[in-house]
Design goal:
Elements: H1 3-11, E1 15-18, E2 21-24, H2 45-60, H3 68-87, H4 95-104, H5 109-133, H6 139-151, H7 160-167, H8 172-180, H9 185-191, H10 195-210
Antiparallel strand pairs: 1-2
Helix pairs in contact: 1-2, 2-3, 3-5, 5-6, 5-10, 8-9
InterPro entries: GLTP_sf (IPR036497), Glycolipid_transfer_prot_dom (IPR014830)
Pfam families: GLTP
GO molecular function: ceramide 1-phosphate binding; ceramide 1-phosphate transfer activity
């Protein structure tokens, strides 16, 4: 799979590629805007999990091993959500349904994993948005700015792992060249659609906080 398709998964366009086959991004709602996540009535849990798998692959492009600790945490959180989803599919059509029913069952693990995963998606989205709003900003600076906005308030001070990982990210031109695997990196960088991903992040952030389920 081309890595630009992985990013398109994360932005929830009208459809994305999974294992070489066209699959509809089944986010519920009525908004047909191609830049929208179509999540008016909820975020489709299965589509979200499939798309989130691409986030791990994207961090591979940032350098061999430097974001290993992030990838391990993302994988763990995806696994926790997927375990809850697989065990209760009928009650977990949307992420919101999954959280409500888990809460009613007196369980918390899937919800806690979702809170952390949304936080990681917010961090990624913010960094990529910064590359678009500041086209001359170095990639490691974009990630530092995203860290300050999304993650810093969760930590007393940045850990050595975080500091080393962000300092070790590649140049932005290298990153987007790797991401497109031979395509037009500059064109891709300018046309990367992040509105859908941001919509999902903001919707779930509000839902989790308003329901008392957790704070992103």
């Amino acid at each position: 799979m081309y890595f630009y398709e992985i990013i398109l998964q994360l932005t929830f366009g009208n459809e994305f590629q999974i294992e070489g086959k066209n699959r509809e991004a089944r986010c519920t709602g009525t908004n047909q805007d191609e830049d929208s996540a179509n999540v008016e009535t909820g975020v489709d849990a299965e589509a979200f999990l499939l798309a989130s798998d691409g986030l791990v692959a994207m961090f591979d492009l940032l350098g061999a091993g430097v974001f290993a600790f992030v990838q391990a945490d993302i994988k763990s959180n995806i696994t926790g959500i997927r375990e809850r989803y697989d065990a209760n599919r009928a009650e977990s059509i949307t992420l919101e349904d999954l959280v409500r029913h888990e809460h009613a069952d007196g369980a918390r693990h899937g919800t806690q994993c979702l809170v952390r995963l949304i936080r990681e998606l917010a961090f990624t989205c913010c960094a990529l948005q910064t590359t678009q709003t500041d086209p001359v900003c170095a990639l490691h600076v974009c990630f530092w700015r995203a860290y300050d906005v999304v993650l810093r308030h969760h930590h007393t001070t940045p850990s050595l792992c975080v500091t080393l990982a962000i300092r070790a990210v590649p140049r932005r031109d290298q990153f987007f060249a790797w991401l497109t695997q031979g395509g037009d990196a500059e064109k891709f960088e300018h046309e990367l659609k992040l509105a859908g991903l941001d919509e999902i992040v903001q919707r779930m952030k509000s839902f989790l906080a308003d329901g008392g389920y957790g704070h992103v």
